Amino acid sequence: MSTVVIANPQAAGGRARAQLQRHQAKLREQFGELLLQFTTGPGHATALTRAAISAGVERIIAVGGDGTFNEVVNGFFDAQGQAADATLVCFPGGTGGDFVRSIGLSGGDVMAALAQATVRRLDVGRASYRRADGTTESRHFINISSFGGSGMIVDRVNRSAKRWGGKASFFWGTLRGLLAYRNQPVRLTVDGLTEPSMVINTVAVANGRFFGGSMMVAPEARLDDGLFDVVIIGDVGTSTFLRCAPRLYQGTHIAMPFIRMLRGRVVEVEPLAETPVLIDLDGEQPGRLPVRYELLPKAIHLLAPWDKAVA
User: Which domains, ranges and CATH numbers included, belong to the chain?
Assistant: First the structure.
């Protein structure tokens, strides 16, 4: 079996399963015989991916949202951090669809877009952070990791029913999270150069461009340029953030006075207060600061219609 489909049947309130059933025949027509496997809980997609790669599978189609894609990507790496030579295909079917916007699979006819897809090597990020129980954990990510207000927002959104879909759920989660969040002091080091201590609302360490339900937080980020785009949203209040929200969705916020952008391959962050600063990792909330990010250039193969990506 050369292609395994790993699908989250609960993604988007169960709509991912229906989406897969609708397109099964076309997927077989394009990719040949498929082995369908459904996840049963957190971490299962990673385990299924590792088992498939160990069995010699050439291609893995991940069906779901950003969280499912993240779990599958983590399954591409072994205990030594070495990536498999298989090819990843991301089939959108979840509430969060930020990553697929960067690869040309957002909206429209997904199968028609995949028919024009090509394989390119994709950069992957690795984050080492503190879990809630105090232990250290490392995970990979393909899109964006962030911390600060975004970590609290993702935690609240993921605990909700997401009944309004991705963009609306994240917008209301953003509003509620910002009202509860207090900006935090941190120390940021990029490629060995330490920035002066700063108070931040949110910092995004970006491989892709979109997070938070289609906010174009890192409009200049590229998935294969060998660098993170580090977007720093400084010490701003809720009213200022909300007033500028349309510019975040449009990607025109970078020149604003309370926003800075840095680039680098290794990003290290320390908290400077007792309050936990939560992390967002591809739309999941796995832990808190301190964190170390490392970019792994051209780590895995991805099949995507890159030229149709949303600009």
Answer: 3-123+300-308 (3.40.50.10330), 125-295 (2.60.200.40)
